[in-house]
Design goal:
Blueprint (H helix, E strand, L loop, with lengths): L4 E5 L2 H4 L34 H9 L18 H11 L3 E5 L2 H4 L10 H17 L2 E5 L7 H7 L6 H16 L6 E3 L6 H4 L1 H5 L11 H25 L3 E7 L3 E3 L4 H24 L4 H9 L10 H7 L4 E5 L4 E3 L6 E3 L4 E3 L15 H15 L3 E5 L17 H19 L4 E7 L19 E3 L11 E3 L1 H20 L1
Parallel strand pairs: 1-2, 1-12, 2-3, 3-4, 4-5, 5-7, 6-8, 7-11, 11-12
Antiparallel strand pairs: 9-10, 13-14
Length: 481
């Protein structure tokens, strides 16, 4: 039985900061404001219109826009990489900021200063023997492409994205172990601003034809990346969705039928296209029912069919409940769900379900028979920096231990697992709630929701626990040989 790679993950927009350093351009995440929570489990949402985007562009108060400072990782880069080396991880997943390479997204030539920043990260990781998992686009889209072309609903985005993708593939063609064209691609459906760069004109719902047209363009772009990558670069190419592990609330047939339909649209659709290479039949019924129309060029079907993913990956934080009846609600990863009475929740309302991760691994592997990377998992909650600069996060240690047990159990049951990447291995700004208080890492960053603090790094108790776990795991695997 092969050894699982144990690692961590961050994204450029949540970690780097330095939003105007090195010729970086504004991106969509730079324009998302911090809004205080209205309760333990909910966050206010603000309509992002062209008016609010214009407000963000001229606002000089960086404290209002947390992604502009992130964890100040840009200026703490070597310190953070040394901590990751000390931790002993096998694999590190991070993303490339599109707007750091092409500030407006449609330039003829890339920004060399941005490329050199990532050169340094890759050089250090390679020297340390840490495998590299690159997310090519993690939500953040150059703002100019959204304002000028309308985001991913415009087919021109494929060409601009491919120029960016080919630039970074050519730059690091021999250095990257795993490539991911899009983070949580299904977020384009349930979170269109983040996923596909659509901005609402008013209070109305998003135009669903625009949403699915945008997703189609991302499918084609992903397939074209794989087409190019298989010919020109080393490494494997995958796809990723946000997974939810749906359970029916009751044994009523209506609940179970709704589960199947919701799971198809929210969870399976995007991965079915990217792994199988064609649109599943259930989507054509969905399109008819909701009067959704998308345009495909003649070559699209061939490109999708011939350039499918080598591996699959997903984020998993909590499970979800499906019911046809009204029931108490709670929060989840960019979505809300029905509360599960059998589970405990974090302060943010995310339901803690380690067995759900094992269930998810089985369902994904049974459906696709492709090796799996758990691209994101972790516990987002408040941590306390004590007077002696210690952080006693036994709750996170328990969370990790319980989930790791289920991962190892799934592997013993026959699931082919490549790697596990702990989300926000270094504390980052939360993508869902735009705040620092919701922390995931084993490395504490001394900053708050408004940008106050030293931004010094401190090892949490979970740092030592994860370090010991990785060492012990590999020692036991070597002894088994």
């Amino acid at each position: 039985m092969k050894q699982i790679l144990w690692g961590g993950a961050t994204s450029a927009s949540q970690y780097e900061g330095a939003f105007q350093v090195g010729n970086k351009g504004l991106d969509t995440q730079d324009c998302r404001p911090y809004l205080p929570r209205t309760s333990d489990a909910t966050v206010k949402t603000r309509l992002l219109s062209f008016a609010t985007i214009n407000e963000a562009k001229v606002c000089q108060d960086i404290g209002q826009y947390p992604f502009r400072r992130g964890s100040k990782g840009y200026s703490h880069l070597h310190e953070d990489l040394e901590l990751l080396k000390e931790l002993g991880i096998d694999i590190y997943r991070f993303s490339i900021s599109w707007a750091r390479i092409f500030p407006h997204g449609d330039e003829k030539e890339p920004n060399e200063e941005g490329l050199k920043y990532y050169d340094e990260i890759i050089k250090v990781l390679k020297k340390a023997g840490i495998k590299i998992f690159i997310t090519m686009n993690h939500y953040a889209i150059p703002l100019h492409l959204v304002e000028t072309y309308g985001g991913w609903k415009n087919r021109k985005m494929i060409d601009y994205y491919m120029k960016f993708a080919i630039t970074i593939m050519n730059r690091w063609k021999d250095d990257i172990d795993y490539w991911l064209p899009f983070n949580e691609i299904n977020a384009g459906y349930f979170s269109p601003y983040n996923g596909v760069g659509l901005i609402k004109e008013d209070e109305k719902s998003y135009n669903q034809s625009d949403v699915f047209q945008s997703l189609h363009h991302q499918f084609v772009a992903s397939a074209k990346v794989i087409q190019y990558g298989h010919k020109k670069v080393k490494g494997q190419f995958g796809c990723m969705i946000a997974s939810f592990c749906y359970y029916a609330y009751t044994s009523r047939p209506e609940d179970n039928l709704k589960l199947i339909k919701d799971e198809n649209i929210n969870q399976w659709f995007c991965m079915d296209v990217l792994v199988r290479g064609y649109y599943p039949t259930y989507m054509f019924a969905f399109f008819r029912e909701h009067d959704i129309h998308i345009y495909m060029e003649d070559e699209d079907k061939k490109i999708l069919l011939e350039n499918t993913s080598d591996f699959i990956s997903f984020s998993y934080y909590s499970s979800s409940i499906i019911t046809t009846e009204e029931a108490p609600q709670t929060a989840g990863n960019l979505v809300v769900t029905t509360r599960n009475p059998y589970l405990q929740s974090t302060k943010w309302g995310w339901q803690i379900d380690p067995i759900g991760l094992c269930t998810t691994l089985h369902k994904f592997y049974d459906r696709y028979q492709k090796p799996i990377i758990i691209a994101e998992n972790g516990m987002g909650t408040e941590d306390v920096l004590e007077l002696d600069f210690k952080i006693h996060d036994q709750y996170r240690i328990q969370y990790l231990q319980d989930h790791f047990e289920q991962i190892i159990k799934a592997q013993k049951d026959g699931v082919d697992i490549i790697a596990y990447c702990m989300w926000g291995i270094i504390d980052i700004v939360s993508a869902g709630s735009c705040e620092m208080d919701k922390r995931y890492g084993v490395i504490y960053v001394d900053g708050n929701n408004h940008g106050d603090g030293t931004y010094q790094r401190y090892k949490k108790d979970s740092f030592s626990w994860y370090q010991q776990f990785i060492n012990q795991y590999h020692k036991e695997k070597e002894e088994e040989r």
